[in-house]
Amino acid sequence: MTDLDIETVEIYRSVSKAELDDLKGFGQFRVCPSGCSMESKWFALRFEDAIAWGSLFYEKQGINLFYVVTATMPRQLANKMFYQDKLDNIGKAICIDEDFLDQVKPIKVTQVRRK
Amino acid sequence: MSNNMSNKLMVKVALMWRSAEEGGRKRPIATADYAATAYFVDGDRQLFSVVLHFPSTLQNGVKVPQLLDRADMDILVPEVIKGQLKQGASFYVTEGARVVAEGKISGLEINALRDHASVNTRSKKSRMQRKVAKKVAPKLVHYQVVSPVVKEGDFSSSLEYEEFHI
């Protein structure tokens, strides 16, 4: 089986400028090596849910600019991840342990700014 | 309270962290503001997002946590746990399926904050400092929810988007 045969699913994560810069520099998602984050990462299964989380999370911090990273990962792997159907009353989210973050391929970034 | 004020719920918590051997974190927390999830031991076990703000000091302009056994817990969408917030309530802090800490609510406070419409016209500094702490009787959990119930499309009218490729 080649990479082209692997069915993938799109997942979405709202990130700060710092996390986006780390993603660009490192080339993939990773947990903060010095212990400044969870040792896994939550992703939304819908773009608009990632927007909702980002809006709430960053607005509480007084930050009007954040980013939503669109990524893909193998569907088979995504189905094995821990998930919540309605996290925070927003939507379905999956939590990807750091051991599997190398399977998440970022493809696009959307900059989101509060008007 | 005037129309441009809203209440922000702040939950004071005591925490006991699990070791890596017990399923806890592999690395010690090195941030003063730690985002994770949690659920109440006696509740419906519905996860909710939290940010734990640890007592910290500024070192070279960076907030460094001083103590990890107590924190102010900010709840992203307080409505989802309405009715479960009580003094003494036990909860777990989780990272995905892993329980990384056990917690207990030690106090509840409501801070009055200016709402978003007025906040947007003010400086970030004054926004952060414009709060008036108001103590709440421990067993009375009367608070107004800061965040609205989130529905699809709620944010679309107030946000601008720009896409680019990685």
In words, what does this structure look like?
The complex is a heterodimer of chains A (115) and B (166). With 115 residues, chain A is an alpha+beta fold. Helices cover 24% and strands 40% of the residues of chain A. Chain A is built from three helices and six strands; from the N terminus they run E-H-E-H-E-H-E-E-E. Chain A has helices at 17-26, 47-60, 75-78, and strands spanning 8-15, 40-44, 65-74, 82-87, 91-97, 105-114. In chain A, the strands form two sheets. Chain A has a three-stranded antiparallel β-sheet with strand order 1-3-6. Chain A has a three-stranded antiparallel β-sheet with strand order 2-5-4. In chain A, strand 4 and strand 5 (91-97) form a beta hairpin. The longest helix of chain A has 14 residues, at 47-60. In chain B, the strands form two sheets. Chain B has a six-stranded antiparallel barrel. In chain B, strands 4-5 form a two-stranded antiparallel sheet. In chain B, a hairpin with a 2-residue loop joins strand 4 (56-59) and strand 5 (62-65). The N and C termini of chain B lie far apart (47 Å). Classes of the chains: A alpha+beta (115), B mainly beta (166). Strand 6 (105-114) of chain A pairs antiparallel with strand 10 of chain B.
